[in-house]
Amino acid sequence: MDMGSLLHQFIQQMINGISLGSIYALIALGYTMIYGIIKLINFAHGDIYMVGAYLGFIATTYLGFGFLPAIIFAMLGAGLAGIIIERVAYRPMRNAPRIAILITAIGVSFFLEYTMMLIASPQPRTFPAIFEATVYHLGPLVVNSQQILILVSALVLMVALSYIVNKTKAGMAMRAVSFDADAAQLMGINVDKTISLTFALGSALAAAGGVLVGIYYNSIDPLMGMMPGMKAFIAAVLGGIGIIPGAMAGGLILGVVEALVSGFISSTFRDAASFAILILILLYKPTGLLGKNVREKV
Amino acid sequence: MLKVDNINVFYGAIHAIKGISIDVSDGEIVTLIGSNGAGKSTTLRTISGLMKPKTGTIKFEDKDITGVSAHKIVGMGLCQVPEGRHVFSNMTVMENLQLGAYLRKDKAGISQDLEEVFKKFPRLLERKLQVAGTLSGGEQQMLAMGRALMSRPRLLLLDEPSMGLAPLLVKEIFNIIKEINESGTTILLVEQNAKMALDIADKAYVLETGRITLAGTAKELQNSEAVQKAYLGG
Ligand SMILES: Nc1ncnc2c1ncn2[C@@H]1O[C@H](COP(=O)(O)OP(=O)(O)O)[C@@H](O)[C@H]1O
Ligand SMILES: [Mg+2]
User: Is B18:B213 a contact under the CB 8 Å cutoff?
Assistant: First the structure.
C-alpha cells in the first residue's frame, strides 16, 4: 500500500470507529453514572441496551413510528425499566455487602436476556429500514447516512446529558449524592429519588444506543447486549469509572482502536484489542485516563 | 424547640446511645461535650435523621420527627453541619452554597441569604469560584457552616466545628457561632473543646460512653469540679 491509500484507509477507519465508539459511549455513560452514585457495576446495563433495541423495534414495526418518536419511546420505556430494576432488585440490597449486589446485577442480566427470549423468541429480528441508507462519497471516503445519524444522535444526547448534570438542580443533586450521600441528605436532597433518576437517565441513553445499532446493523437479538455491554464497561473503566466525560472519551477511543485493528490487522483481533486495553489500564492506571490518582475513600 | 426523649441508638449490636434526653429552647446555645467516642456525633446524626433510634422520641417544634428521613427534616428548619465538614470538594464554593438552598424556591430570599453568608465569611466570597477541595480546613468549616445557613435553619447542629483548626481560627469560628445565634438561630453545639464551648453556651450536657452524666447551665458546669478535672484541664 502506498502512503495515499494508507492515509485514506486510516481516515475511513476513523469514521467507522467514531460511529461505533459513540454507541459505546452512550452505553458507557450509564455504567459510569450508576457506578458513580451507588458504586455498582451494573452488569445488567448491556441488557437494558438490548431492551431498548426491542422497544425501538416494536415502535417502528408495530406502531409505525418514525425515527424520532421511536427512539423517544425506547428511551422512556428503558428509563422506566431502569427505575423498576433499581427499586425492586438493587435498593433492598443497598446496605448489603458489595458482592451480593454484584451477583444480583448478574441475576438481573440473565433475567432480562431470558425473559426477552421467552417473549420475542431467541431468533434475531430484522429491524425495519426506517432510513434509506444513502452513501456519501467524499473523495475516496465513504460515509453512510446511518453513521451520520448515529454520530449526530449521540452528540445531541451527550450535550443534553452534560447540560442536565452540570446546569440543572437535579444534576447537581446527582453529583452531590455521588460524592457524599450523607452530606447530600443534609442539604435536603432525596437520595432515593436521585438514584432513580440516575438509573432512568443511564438506561435511556443505553436504549438510544440500542435503537441506533438496530438501525445500523438491521438485526437485534436477546443476547445482543452482552458484547457491547462488556465493551462499554471497558470504555467506562478506560475513561475513569464514575467520570462522565471519561465515559464519552473512553467510548470513542475504544471504538477507534477497534476499527483501526479491524482495518489494519484483522477483525478477529478486534475484541482482543479491547480486552488488552482493559488489562493495560487496570495494570498501569486503574483510575482511568481522566481519573485522579487517589486511593478510594474508605 | 428540640426535645430528645430517652433515645437508644445502636450500630448493629453496639449500643452507642443509652437513653439520652436533651432539651433545647428557642434562642439558646446548648452544648454537648464529651471525649472522643462518647456518642456526640451519633446523637446529632440521630437528631438530623441520618440514623434512627431504636427507642425514644425526638420532637422539633412540637412535631414528632423520630424516624423521619434526613432530607425532610432539613425542610422543617433543622440543619446539621457534620463532623469533618463534608463539603462537596469537587464542586465550587458557590455550588456548595447553592446546594445548601436546595429545598428553597424563594429566589430573592436565597440571594439575600447568600449576601449574608458572604458578609459573615468574606473569605468565601473571595473564593466563590474556587473548587471547595482546594480550601484550607478553616475555610472548609466556614463553607460547611455557610452552606447550612443557606437552608435558613431555625435550629443549627454543629459537630466539632473547631476540630483540627489553629487557635486563632477556632476563636474566629466561635465568634461567628455567637453571631449566628444572636441573629436568631438556635444552636446545638458538639465540642471536644469544652472550654470554648462552655464560654459561649447557655446550657450544657456532658456525655460519657453513651450516657449523660452531667447537665446544667454552662456556668454551673464551668464551676463543677468534675468538669474542670475531666474537660478543662484543671
Ligand atoms: N459507623 C459506626 N459503626 C460502629 N460503631 C460506631 C460507628 N460510628 C461510631 N461508632 C461507635 O459509637 C460510639 C460513639 O461514637 P461517636 O458518636 O462518633 O462519638 P463522638 O462523636 O462522641 O466521638 C463509639 O464507641 C464509636 O466507636
Ligand atoms: Mg464525633
Answer: no
Tell me the chain A residues in contact with residue B148 when contact means C-beta distances shorter than 8 Å.
Answer: 186
Torsion on CA atoms A67, A69, A71, A72, rounded to nearest 10: 160
ipTM of the complex: 0.93
Asked whether residue A5 is domain-assigned, the answer is: no
Separation in Å, CA of B172 to nearest CA in chain A: 24
Cell numbers standing for residue B27: 434562642
**Do the Cβ atoms of B88 and A190 come within 8 Å?**
no
In tens, the pLDDT along B20-49 reads 999 999 999 999 999 999 999 999 999 999
Residue A162 is part of which domain span?
23-284
pLDDT of A233 strictly over 60: yes
Residue A201 within a domain:
yes
Number of domains forming the structure of chain A = 1
Q: Which residues of chain A lie closer than 8 angstroms to B70, CB-CB? A: 182, 185-186
Residue A18 lies in a domain: no
> What CATH number should be reported for the domain holding residue A101?
1.10.3470
pLDDT at B101 over 90: yes
State the sign of the Cα–Cα–Cα–Cα dihedral B37, B41, B42, B44.
Answer: positive
Q: Is residue A273 part of a domain?
A: yes
> Is residue A266's pLDDT more than 60?
yes
